[in-house]
TrEMBL record:
The lineage of its organism: Eukaryota, Metazoa, Ecdysozoa, Arthropoda, Hexapoda. It comes from the Eukaryota. It comes from Danaus chrysippus (African queen). GO terms for biological process: protein O-linked glycosylation via mannose. Residues 48-290 form the FKRP stem domain. This is (African queen) hypothetical protein.
Length: 496
């Protein structure tokens, strides 16, 4: 058969030879054109290929969580430089690093490593002190102290970040067990609440030693993305922006152990506490509700001044669109309970007055914007209460005093913390209760029948005496439908 083939026409021989050459070229010189079975193309595979080729151009590594007096930053930087020689690395220091890191950023192998001090210098420009001005990549990988990179995990994070660009991606470092948290920031009530999310699907914050990859454009939307305590402050800011965090089931290796001595641990804990207190003061957090329900207070105490300045007609917090700071509300409650016990034990006829009665009817507590508590008293019973006669600090530290202008009394939480309870005397004349010579815009005379007999109502965690028809009493003092209007228009009912 081959003999017949080679005896054929010359043109056929030429075509055959060209065909053989074409097969050789396609099969060996152009392997990318080999024929493979067709497989579906998925976005993660595309992202993986893209990340593997361009990860150094896609991500900047940032070190922010470390102590200046003892850290593992030099070895952590070397870990990333060894794995990715061309990757950009930014080490952000709170002040000029001392003792210095055990490496020099002028070294040619560390040419992409930048050490940034956030210490204020008078010749600095705003750009000099802005870490984001040193980041030109699309993503940022923020790693804590004592971390060692894993190329495989780094690529997994990059794939996840590019697949879900609206989310941040977290992985554990070493043997850390990560906790997924949800954050509720109640601006009106000055309260921050954390809760645990066992599903670990999408978190507001992550607790535990971890690395975090986030899109640079997201950081540009935050007021202070790298402020201390880090990353707690970062998660508060991203939670407000509704940026969720996804935890991957991978981890970076841990580096050298640091802060091993009790003195070093104590120093680090003290700094963390100071940073957290300063942060909460800046953003107006007075109470933090922990995952287990415990409340941690950052507002005023008996030994400190109250959280708002002297009131000139309208409290400052009402002007800011907020309610009474929760620590002040707690202290007013304590003072109210103390005053009611003292008055009732002395046999004085007393009752909840306007603003406090309104709060008791609405929710059994102080009004959310209450500046003080109000208690009415029969003027003829003042002599029964010894502390109203002599004044001063009682055995429990509460300060009793008579107003210099007007015939009324105040009981302050302490000599330093001046949140207080008003005691307002009324005189009975011809079936009407008349206020003494003090002036409050919402106070006026009322029929004595509202006090015969007195009723009981729930208030600040106890039963308190009150007028027998609370709603009618409030309508008389504040106008028709006072309760409904209070629920609808809030503090404008009392501070128009």
């Amino acid at each position: 058969m081959l003999h017949r083939l080679f005896r054929g026409r010359f043109t056929f021989k030429v075509y055959l030879l060209l065909g053989i050459i074409a097969i050789i070229v396609c099969g060996y010189l152009l392997p990318q054109y080999k024929i493979y079975p067709i497989a579906p193309v998925t976005s993660p595979s595309s992202a993986h290929s893209h990340a593997s080729r361009h990860i150094s151009k896609l991500v900047t590594v940032v070190f922010r969580q470390f102590e200046d007096f003892e850290n593992d930053i030099a070895e952590g930087v070397q870990s990333f430089v060894s794995a990715y020689p061309n990757i950009a690395i930014l080490v952000i220091c709170q002040r000029a690093q001392y003792p210095p890191f055990q490496f020099s950023s002028t070294n040619e192998t560390l040419k992409n490593v930048k050490i940034l001090s956030m210490e204020l210098k008078l010749d600095s420009s705003p750009r000099d002190l802005d870490p984001l001005s040193y980041i030109s990549t699309e993503y940022v990988l923020i790693v804590p102290d004592s971390s060692r990179v894993s190329r495989r995990v780094f690529q997994q994070m990059t794939i996840a970040a590019t697949t879900y660009p609206s989310q941040a991606i977290a992985v554990a470092v070493g043997n850390a067990r990560l906790s997924c948290q949800q954050i509720k920031w109640a601006y009106d009530d000055w309260t921050l609440q954390y809760s645990r999310d066992s599903s670990k699907k999408l978190c507001d914050a992550v607790q535990g030693q971890h690395a975090l990859m986030i899109k640079t454009s997201v950081l540009h939307t935050l007021p202070k993305p790298f402020s201390f305590p880090f990353p707690e402050s970062l998660y508060l800011q991203t939670a407000v922006k509704n940026v969720k965090v996804q935890i991957l089931d991978s981890k970076f290796a841990a580096g050298r152990s640091v802060l091993k001595t009790p003195a070093a641990k104590q120093k680090s804990s003290r700094r963390l506490r100071d940073y957290r207190t300063a942060l909460y003061k800046d953003i107006g957090v007075k109470a933090v509700v922990k995952e287990d329900g415990r409340v941690q207070w950052f507002g005023c105490k008996r030994e400190t001044q109250r959280c708002f300045p002297p009131v000139q007609r309208v409290p400052s917090y009402v002007v800011s669109g907020r309610n009474t700071p929760p620590c002040c509300r707690r202290n007013i409650r304590r003072t109210t309970g103390h005053v009611l016990r003292a008055l009732l034990q002395a046999g004085a006829r007393c009752w909840l007055e306007t603003t406090s009665l309104l709060g008791a009817v609405v929710n059994g507590d102080l009004l959310p914007w209450a500046e003080y508590a109000e208690i009415g008293i029969h003027a003829s019973d003042l002599s029964r209460v010894s502390w109203l006669q002599r004044g001063g600090a009682d055995n429990d530290g509460f300060v009793w005093e008579r107003a210099t202008k007007g015939h009324y009394y105040r009981v302050a939480y302490s000599a330093t913390n001046r949140v207080y309870v008003l005691i307002l005397p009324f005189t009975a004349r011809n079936g009407t209760m008349w206020p003494a010579d003090w002036v409050l815009s919402h106070q006026r005379d009322f029929p004595e029948r509202h006090l015969h007999p007195l009723a009981q109502i729930q208030f600040v965690g106890r039963q308190a005496p009150a007028p027998n028809d609370a709603r009618a009493f409030l309508d008389l003092k504040l106008g028709p439908n006072a309760v409904e209007r209070s629920e609808r228009i809030g503090p404008r009912l009392l501070y128009p």
